[in-house]
Amino acid sequence: MISFVRAHGYDPGPTQRPMLAGAITGLLASVPGGLVFVGFGSFRVLVDDVFRTSRSWTAVLMLAACILAGLLYGAVFQRAANDRRAGWLIGLAYGFILWIAAPVVTLPLIQRSAMAGGDAAVGFLVAFLTWGLVAGLLFPYVHRPLHANLETVKGGSSQRLGPEADMLKQPPAPQPV
Prior knowledge:
By secondary structure, this protein is an all-alpha fold. It contains 8 helices and no strands. Helix 2 crosses helix 4 (55-77) and helix 2 (18-39) packs antiparallel against helix 6.
């Protein structure tokens, strides 16, 4: 992995958009993660005991959190998130870290001591892991179409860039003596 990073670089180029890809991936991954969350009864606990708001407001907050988490995923992992072989593992680990961090971040904000237990607590873990797994699997496929073409970025210039630029050059005209 280190040799790959040294050879190709870790930072994305000017035409890559990892944060946008992460936000879109987070939105798409919120569907299976949310289904698991609702299936285990964790959403009901979140609505009734933790946030004490309406279902729609809680769903909007969770959707925003998923998009923000996806944006952070793209910002942190950048080009490494494009690995199709290890993406599922990176996403799964990221989901686990989010599961650990979520109570630390949210409980002081809501200032309530309500905690989920039983099936709802298991639902929190499984939902975060599902979200991370799906985000890790989808990121490379969402990121690829978002790459801009360098020619479009340069204003539609017909000048070729990159390794194939040399192959397309015509030989220089002979100079008169």
